[in-house]
Each structure stands twice: as C-alpha cells, then as structure tokens.
Known about the structure:
Structural class: alpha/beta
Helix content: 40-55%
Number of helices: 27
Radius of gyration: 29 Å
Shape: globular
Largest sheet: 8 strands, mixed
Amino acid sequence: MNRFYRSFQGRSEAGRGRRLGLLFRSLSSERDSSLVENLRLESFKGPVISASKRALLDEKLVDFFKRNYDRVEEELGDSLGKASFNMFRRDLLGIDSRVLRRVGRLHLSDVERMLKDPHTQHDEVFFDGMMRHARIFFKSSFEESVRNKFVADLRQPHQLYPEARSKKRKIIYHHGPTNSGKTYTAMEALKKSKNGVYAGPLRLLALECFERLNRAGVYASLLTGQEIKEVPFATHTSCTVEMMSVTEEYEVVVIDEIQLIGDPDRGSSWTRVLLGANAKEIHVCGDGTAVELVKQLADICGDEFEDHSYVRRTPLTVKEESLEGKLTNLKRGDALIAFRRQDLFRLKHDIERTTNLKCCVIYGSLPPETRARQAKFFNDPDGAFDVLVATDAIGMGLNLNIGRVIFSTLVKKSRDVGMQKVSAPHVRQIAGRAGRDGTEYANGEATCLEAEDMDYFLEAMGQPPVPLEKAGIVPTFEQMEDFASHYPNSMSLAVLLDKFVAVHRVEKNFRLCSPRMNDFMIIADMMEEHKSLTMKEKFDFLMTPVNFANELLLKNLARMIQEYSQLGYVRLYENGRIPDELALFGRTIVTLHRAEGHCALLEAYLFLANTIGPAAFLDYDQARVIRKQVVDYIDNLLWEARYVPPRQSSAAKESRDTNNETANAQEQEASFQTMSLQ
C-alpha cells in the first residue's frame, strides 16, 4: 500500500487522481470477498436519495474531509485515509439503508436530517462512519496502520535521549548577523570548560575550531566523517554535527549555525544534538530565526533557556546601484557570486581577460583543504590575487576579507523545483560576508552585477527574518529496528522506509526531513538483494554522504555494499587494484570535475571505514594517501583549468570535441596516474 506514497506527492492534480485510482484498486483487493458479494446482493435497486440531495451531501462530505484531513492522516495515514474516505463517500451516496447501518451505523433518517440544514457540520458522524468503513473494508491495512502508529511515533523525540533528560540543562542562544562576535563568545566558554565539544556544519569549521582550541592550549581532537585526529590527553573535541556523541558527558557543548535545524536535508542532525547533548551547558549560535523554536524545544525538555542578542561590529551598506554589467567596475577585495561551476570559470576567464585583476575560486564540491587555501590566497593583503569568484559555499565556514559582495545572478538550481530565485535569507547570509573587523575592509558593501537583479536584491535585503516553526527529524536506527521487528525479515529496507514515511506522526514543532528520507530510499534500493546485512550495517550505509549527480560514486557505493555483504570486506577499487598514479589528463574544467568526483569517492570510502570500522576496509591507509594526491592535483589544476568560450560559428565542432573529451575521461576513470602540471 505505502509504496504509492512517494510517487503520489508532488504530482499534478490529474496525476494525483490517476495515482489515487491505482491506490484505490490496490486497497480494494483487501476487502473480504464474501462481504463484497453480500453487499452486491443487498444493494438497493434505486437511489437512496434524490440527485439534488446527493449533490448536497457530497459537498458536505468533501468539506468534511478537507477540514479534517490532518486528523484522518494522523489516524490512518495519507494513502489509507484517502482510500477509506473515497470508499465511504461512494457507499454513503449510493448504498441502501441496511448497508449504511452495517457499515457506518447510519440511518436514512440521519442523512435526511443532515440535509435539512446545509450549514450544520456533522464531522463526528462522518468521521466515525469513515473509520468503521476503514476497519471493515480495509481490515489488514487498518490493523497495520494502528500497529505502525505506535512504532512510527516521532512525537516525543526528546525522550530518545535518557542521559540528557536525567539532568537540568541550560541552553544559551547566541544570535546575531555575521561578524557580530556570537561564536567567539560561545568558544570562550568552551575553552574555559573542563571538557567539551564544538559541533559545526562543515569540516572546515571543525578543523578551524580544532586548530583554534589547540593554539589556545586546550587539547582537542578532531572528528569528522572523513578524518579523525586523536590528540593525546585531549579533553575537548571539534567535530561535524553528525559525528557528535549524545552519550558522552560534557561540561559545555557549542552547536554552530543552529538555524540549520530547519533545513529539509540536514536539519535532523541539529535536532538530535540539541535534544540529546549530554551536557550541563549548551551554547547554540546562529541567526535569530530559530530563537522561538529552540526556546519551545527547551521547554519540552525541561531545560533553562537564555537569549543573548548581538549586533554587527562593522557596518554593511546595501548599495542601490549595480555595476551595470561591467566587469571593469570590479576592484580588489570584491567577491563575485555565481551558483554554477561553469559560470565561475566563465567569470574568472572574462575578469582576467578584460582587467588586470587575478581571481581565486571557491565552490562547494572542492575539497575543504582546497577551499581553505583559496581563501588564504585571497585574504593575503600582499598576495597576487585580487577578486574572489565563488558560489554560496562562502556563506559559512570561511573567514574571508571581502570588501564588497556582488551577485552576478540571483537564480540558482534547486534539487526539487529546478531554477528558482535565491531565497531572501540566503541572499542576506551571503551579502553579510562583506566587511570584516580588523581588516582594510571593515565597512562592507553588497550589490548586483546587473541592474535587472536590483529590485529583487533590495527586496530580499529589506525583508525581516521569518522565524522557523519546525525542526527537522528522521527516525533513529533504534526506531527503525523496532519498526522492522513487526514485519517479515525478508522485507527490504526500502519498503520499510516507505511504510514508515506513510504512517509516521510528529508534533507541531517537528517535521520529517523528506529529502533526506528520499536519499535514504535511493541507497536502500542498492541493498535490496543483500539480505545478509544487519539493520545496523544498512543504517551505516544509509548515512554515507552522497552527491547523487556523481555517477562514479553511486556505482562504487553499490559495489562497496555488495562486497561488504558477500565478502565481509571492501576494496577501494574494483578487483582490489590500487593504482599508483592519477589518470587525469588535460587542464580543462571537465578534468577538474572528474578529479572532484574521485575525491568524493575517496571521502565516502573513508567515511564508511570510520563509521563501520577500518578493519573491513582493506585500503583505508592507501585511500588517505591517494586522497591527498588528488587534493594536491585539484589545487594545481584549479589554476590551470581552461575555460573555452563557446563560439556560435563552430558549435557543432565544440559539441563533438566536448563529447570526445568526456568519452576519453570516462575511459580513464578506473585508474590513477600522477602528472606534473608544468
């Protein structure tokens, strides 16, 4: 039944209708055949009510369902609720009085009384009748729904963390714009503690805080999915938020970028550490959009809550004039923002061709070390680089000496809806990177390259922040294990996740991270045939950080799952061959993209080794060495990568050349050869 859930969402009205029809026929097959036959024999030979009254009754039924959909969904789930309502609606409008009494405990006199006053609502009567309908006509699905409601109940996620609930915690919220000192204050409290942990959204931030703590004489270890650095006698830990322990006891915890608790992809990780942090004192840092939500979650947990507000230490001026599309209006200290890799290199090429300025480049799929080096080159006041060309990856995680942020566009591609305008909070976050205290760019500015973007830019910068209402949540391993225990062992994880999504329940302060669950289902499909994996092992594979546009990574992840299931160990490359060198030829953007894909594969291998245990990942040490080689290669290639401007007169030739280059690249993906970029 619940296999219909995912494909039902997001369809057009006609598509949803067709899908509901399929669902209806699927669920109808569960009706008791003798009861169906009896109903047909006993059916009234004429209409129970007149056509006009039937239309009025149908209108009342539809209004009832719209008003009570949330209640129906909570009791039956989305799919079963809709199917039960449609069956109840059909029978109420067309079956005789004996069937009405048997199915819904209704009499014709009840129906007639409902129709006398068209303005009176009869929600309880309709609801009771529909629920009885569900119990009779969809017996097995109804019983499954009732059972699953309890094991898929996410309404009290704070109770999943007994260690945290055993103490009275103090949550201190530091909120303010970029460059306001909020994180500095929280880190000072962490340094003074006997033991503690910093949890941030990026490996870059975890590495920065790791280095900051150790420079201050506070021994700290580093823990990310891809890298572990254990420092002797360490009392503190700097980690990514997904890797933070909720069982180890700390005196102070710092959770950075707390507003990401509402993110549809990763929000559940912030919810987990906020509710589960086993500490006396928890400092959360971010903008002000999550203040009320965090306060409500603190109340649910019985924790004390403090709210500390900060103001920007340096001014940010929102310019009302664009650069009129002229790259010659750029100057040293500018950051030009685009949202696609090819646009970055096009802009870099055009800037360096038409001006005397040299560009650094930062975008999300670059390795963290490469991004940090590019930031270092850009920040150097005596360096050779003048302008930063970057995506929204600069929005957090890097300290940058930016004097002016300039948007080359305000449209970006979304994984769900295609091209759309950059959200107002995102625009403000990126613009806020301009201006940094203690540098020559203390006074920041923000504007657009093109005049046509200025109206939306000014509107976005002037909008007040919208408070977050819901924290993201996903089921824990323990919940899924409990849920799976109610089904046959042969049921696949993908089907179990599908069923969980269909029947889960959350409170008003929470929402299921649907994109994250969809990612889980894609990886779960890879494990369909591997029955020997335990639920814990399957869950570990689910957590692998994956860019689903990286075909090389997806192909090798499926192979790793197969090898682990069948052999009990995993090699980095197929057939266990560890190439010595890097087979990446040329200096083009295609080559760079391929190198980044290989780096992501290496990082996924290291993540799984650190999560499941390095003993089963035979090439763990080699993977670390090769990853360093690839990162160094990317560092060099980033300066050398050529952007070839399209020429209309030779479009066909360019297309052929690109296809040939891509084909050659694919032939070389299986092996590595080091090459020197002279």
